[in-house]
User: Fold this.
Amino acid sequence: MFRKLYNWVLGWADTKYGVPALAIVSFAESSFFPIPPDPLLMALSLGKPKKAFRYAFVCSAMSVLGGIAGYFIGWALWDLLSGFFFTYVFSPEVFEYVGEQYKQNAFITILGAAITPIPFKVFTVTAGVFHISFLYLIIASVIGRSARFFIEAGLIYFFGEKIRNFIDKYFNLLLTLFFVLIVLAVVIIKLLLKN
Assistant:
């Protein structure tokens, strides 16, 4: 089923509806849809590299708006929709695990999910359920989602088709390393401010 959905999403790149499809997938993936927008973003960017940053902006903005929708689902509609989410989107164990991560550092937890390949919807919906600061959600989403999608667009803009295989092969590792660098930067800044 996921492969069919993936192919369906990717199929929009070859149509005049590629950008609207990118916007819809980016929004939906942040709140309930299982397929990330990255493959469609890359396909559109490879087709028109000069528009790569425009596609990244659409992807980032709609993903943040989708995260707000996910937060609202968790905050206001969780009692009504929890059965659907536990059946089709994430397990109760994942839900509890994310809740524990919020106790450690909610901002870094959301930022990590926004940058890395971890399903972002899990974190946007649970942020609403656990009443995490809405401001944390917005700031972490804007930073993380923009970093993720603009890095992909930038690689394609500057390196074109030859970077595609590299991205496909090392995508998860690249995003995880980037997240680790951001966390280290935050820790260093906090230490410097204390001194």
